[in-house]
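Hi all, posting the design record for the shared folder.

TITLE: backbone redesign
STEP: 1 of 1
STRUCTURE INPUT:
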């Protein structure tokens, strides 16, 4: 593995971590408003936040493998959360 590939892989991993952290911060910042607007119990709020965070993971994992499947996976996770909630 060349040094250029190592740097590129490091930058891509760092950017992925930054974006996942940003998603986490955005989701965590909305918990009070979500709980008040939808009258969520503590358990349902926890479930909603956990599902939102889990929904960000398949997108990053499957994005390189096959983008259409990534979009479908993301859609069904979000849809399942809407049905359960």
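Okay, here is what came back for every position:
SEQUENCE:
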């Amino acid at each position: 593995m060349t040094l250029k590939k190592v740097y590129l892989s490091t930058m891509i991993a760092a950017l992925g971590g930054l974006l996942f952290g940003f998603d986490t911060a955005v989701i965590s910042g909305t918990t009070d408003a979500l709980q008040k607007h939808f009258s969520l119990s503590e358990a349902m709020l926890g479930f909603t936040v956990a599902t939102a965070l889990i929904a960000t993971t398949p997108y990053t994992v499957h994005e390189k493998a096959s983008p259409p499947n990534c979009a479908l996976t993301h859609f069904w996770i979000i849809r399942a959360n809407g049905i359960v909630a």
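COMMENT: The two ends are 47 Å apart (CA to CA).
Let me know if anyone wants the other runs.
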